[in-house]
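Working notes for the structural subgroup meeting. M.R. asked for a predicted model of this chain before we commit to crystallization trials. I am recording the input and output together here so anyone reviewing the notebook later can reproduce the run.

Input as submitted:
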Amino acid sequence: MSLQKVLLVSVVLGLGSCISAPTSSPVLKVQADGLPLVLKIAGLELYCGGQPLGELGFSSLAELGVRTVVNVDGAKPDVKTAAKFGIEYVHIPIGYDGIDEISAAALQRVVRDCEFPVYVHCYHGQHRGPAAAALLARASGGMGPADAAQIMEEAETNPGYSGLWRDVFEWVPLAADARFPELESVAVIDDFTAGMAAVDRVWDRVKLIRSAQWGTPPSHPDLVASLEADYLADLLFNTIHSASAENNSVLRFNNLALESIDASRELVAGIKAGSNDAAEASFSRLGNACTQCHLSFRN
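Returned structure, recorded in token form:
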């Protein structure tokens, strides 16, 4: 997404008059083992990226000098591994639809109370993490909306997640004497959010299996196609079924939920039957159902 598009988004949101174009990029790309898509915010002790991959990821964070990790994903933070490297965790889950007032206040408190450098992450490091980092950059002072938008632009944050862009543009700091929420290392989240975070991770493993022609990927000999497909089908059923019951007035959600569950079961059957064509067809069907559901209910 180009800066012109970012500015166009701001105009659509009614914010174009208060934004000036930045003079230089505030973002530097960083290569670090075990850390996907790392960006360094120039002039600040602030990084953003994807979820640290085990001890390797946290070791790289320690080498970067990171003292605090902020997880904005719904998955439970790996507090134990972080602690081995002297890193504190803060858990502030946010959605794809935007950064609510409480979460924004918690991020502002991170600037006030947490030890820097700070690393902000979601799962892949592309949407929610960069948005939270952009808000943190604004809260740290000296960065306006246009520079903050470049953080999201560099991460290729989807413009369809308009709430994330809006809330970074519109953010207004709380007064210093305001009441801020407590910061937690592991936040209490609902079953649906936790379940969908797990689905995201299994889906990525299924995509690896697909790239290996529905077999075990050479780079991941621990992955068994039928077991991962079974796990995905169970997660979808248990997670979406409970949410569907709570949203029975939303016919489209229920229809897409049933489509996803049926497609995941077909995927299991196709893999177990040794039919790559059947597995491919059900994979595409499931992916389409997920995309349609995200467009209608996540964005």
